[in-house]
C-alpha cells in the first residue's frame, strides 16, 4: 500500500494537487482531509480510472485527522490561508503557524514515519514548526521533512526561457535559500543549458523569480495566490519523493527546504550559510528521503551578495518558527 494524504485538500491548491496525485499510478490510496468538502472532492476523483482509492475525511468526523494520516507513506500540507495583495508571506504566520502545528502533532502521533511535504506559508517558518513538533514527540527524522520550493524553480525555468529563447521544460536553474522574497536566490550563473545573460537581465530575472508569487497575488486581486502552478509543482515534488522512496529510482535531484543536519553534506553546507539550520538547495533523494544536500560552489559575486542578504531573513523566520512551538509547549497548547 502506498497511501498519500493531502491536508487542506479542498482548497485552491488542495483540489488540483489531489487530482494530479490521483493520476500518479504509484499511489494506491489517496486520503483527503480538510475542514470542509472532502467527501465531495473524494467522490469526484474516485471515478477516475487510475489505481488510487480516494477517501475524504473531515475535521468534524470522529478522529477524522487521525484516520486520514494513519498509514500514510507521504503527507502533503497545503492547509492554511493564502496572501491577499499587500501582504507578505510572514503576515500569514499568525494563522498558519497554529494550523501547521496542530497537523504536525497528529502526524507525530499517528504517522511518525511519513515523508512530510510542507506547502503552507511562510515555508521558511512552517518547516521549523513541523520539525520542532516532531522533535518534542521524539520522532524527528530530518531526512523525511521537506519545505516545497519547487514552484521557484518552475518559475525560474519559465521566466529565463522567455529571455533566452530556450524550451522552458529543458531549462534548469538552481534556486536556493528559502521561499520568500529576498531569501529566494536563483543561481543564474548555473543555468543549463548554459546561457550568458547581461547584468541587467540577471538583475531583472532575479527580481522576477524572487517576487513571482506577487505577480499572481496581484492578478488574482484578493482571490488568493498561486494554486494551479503550485499544484503542478507540488505533484512534481511528490512524484520525485515517491519515485525515490517507493520505486527505487536513483539519482533524482530536486530542490527543497530542509534541515541541514539531515546528512553530513548538509552540515558542510551549514558551515557556508552562517550556521543556519534550514536552507533550500538541490537535494539528491534516496530510499530514506534526503540522501545528499548539494553544496553552494562557485557563486558569482552577485549571487554571493544575494546570499548575504538572505541569511539574516532566513534566520529570523527560522527562529520565529522555533520560538512559536517553544511558547506553545510552555503554555501546554
Ligand atoms: N510553498 C509554495 O510555493 C506555495 C505556493 C502557493 C501557495 N502556498 C501556500 O499554500 C497555502 C494554501 O493556499 P491555497 O491557495 O490552497 O489556500 P485556500 O484557502 O484555497 O485553501 C486552504 C485550505 O486549507 C483548509 N484548512 C484550513 N485550516 C485547516 C486545518 N486546520 N486542517 C485542514 N485544512 C485546513 C481550508 O479549509 C482550505 O480548504 C497558503 O498558505 C499559501 O500561502 C505555498
Ligand atoms: O506568493 C504566495 O504567497 C504564494 C506562494 O508562496 C508563491 O510563491 O506563489
For the biggest β-sheet, the strand order reads 3-2-1-4-5-6
Helix content: 40-55%
Overall 3D shape: globular
Q: Please state the average pLDDT score.
A: 98
Please identify, by name, the CATH architecture of the largest domain.
Alpha-Beta Complex
User: CATH superfamily of the largest domain, called what?
Assistant: Lactate dehydrogenase/glycoside hydrolase, family 4, C-terminal
What binds here, in terms of ligands, is: nicotinamide-adenine-dinucleotide, (2S)-2-hydroxybutanedioic acid
Number of domains: 2
Radius of gyration of CA atoms, rounded to a whole number: 19 Å
Helix-strand topology string: EHEHEHEHEHEHEEHHHEHEEH
CATH class of the largest domain: Alpha Beta
Q: Pick out the low-confidence regions.
A: none
Specify the biggest β-sheet. Answer: 6 strands, parallel
Derived from helix and strand composition plus strand pairing, the structural class reads alpha/beta
Strand content: 15-25%
List keywords for this structure.
binds (2S)-2-hydroxybutanedioic acid, binds nicotinamide-adenine-dinucleotide, Lactate/malate_DH_N, alpha/beta, 333 residues, L-2-Hydroxyisocaproate Dehydrogenase, Chain A, domain 2, single chain, 44% helix, Lactate/malate_DH_C, Rossmann fold, Lactate_DH/Glyco_Ohase_4_C, oxidoreductase, 2 domains, six-stranded parallel sheet, globular, tricarboxylic acid cycle
Please summarize what this structure is.
This protein is 44% helix and 17% strand.
Amino acid at each position: 500500500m502506498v497511501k498519500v494524504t493531502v491536508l487542506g485538500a479542498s482548497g485552491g491548491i488542495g483540489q488540483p494537487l489531489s487530482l494530479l496525485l490521483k493520476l500518479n499510478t504509484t499511489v494506491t490510496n489517496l486520503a483527503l482531509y480538510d475542514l470542509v468538502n472532502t467527501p465531495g472532492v473524494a467522490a469526484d476523483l474516485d471515478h477516475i480510472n487510475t489505481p488510487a482509492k480516494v477517501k475524504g475525511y473531515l475535521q468534524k468526523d470522529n478522529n477524522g485527522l487521525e484516520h486520514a494520516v494513519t498509514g500514510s507513506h507521504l503527507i502533503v500540507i497545503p492547509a492554511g490561508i493564502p496572501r491577499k495583495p499587500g501582504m507578505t508571506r510572514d503576515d500569514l504566520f499568525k494563522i498558519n503557524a497554529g494550523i501547521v502545528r496542530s497537523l504536525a502533532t497528529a502526524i507525530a502521533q499517528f504517522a511518525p514515519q511519513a515523508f512530510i511535504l510542507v506547502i503552507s506559508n511562510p515555508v521558511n517558518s512552517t518547516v521549523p514548526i513541523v520539525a520542532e513538533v516532531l522533535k518534542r514527540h521524539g520522532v524527528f527524522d530530518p531526512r523525511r521533512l521537506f519545505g516545497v520550493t519547487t514552484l521557484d524553480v518552475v518559475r525560474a525555468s519559465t521566466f529565463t526561457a522567455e529571455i533566452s529563447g530556450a524550451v522552458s521544460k529543458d531549462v534548469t536553474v538552481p534556486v536556493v535559500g528559502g521561499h520568500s522574497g529576498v531569501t529566494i536566490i536563483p543561481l543564474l550563473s548555473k543555468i543549463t543549458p548554459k546561457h550568458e545573460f547581461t547584468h541587467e537581465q540577471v538583475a531583472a530575472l532575479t527580481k522576477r523569480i524572487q517576487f513571482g508569487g506577487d505577480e499572481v497575488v496581484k492578478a488574482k486581486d484578493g482571490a488568493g495566490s498561486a494554486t494551479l502552478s503550485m499544484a503542478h509543482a507540488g505533484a512534481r515534488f511528490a512524484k520525485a519523493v515517491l519515485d525515490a522512496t517507493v520505486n527505487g529510482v536513483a539519482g533524482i535531484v530536486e530542490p527543497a527546504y530542509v534541515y541541514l543536519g539531515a546528512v553530513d553534506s548538509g552540515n558542510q553546507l551549514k558551515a557556508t550559510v552562517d550556521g543556519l539550520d534550514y536552507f533550500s538547495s538541490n537535494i539528491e533523494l534516496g530510499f530514506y528521503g534526503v540522501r545528499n544536500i548539494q553544496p553552494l560552489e562557485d557563486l558569482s559575486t552577485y549571487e554571493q551578495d544575494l546570499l548575504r542578504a538572505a541569511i539574516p531573513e532566513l534566520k529570523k523566520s527560522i527562529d520565529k518558527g522555533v520560538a512559536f512551538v517553544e511558547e506553545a509547549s510552555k503554555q501546554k497548547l
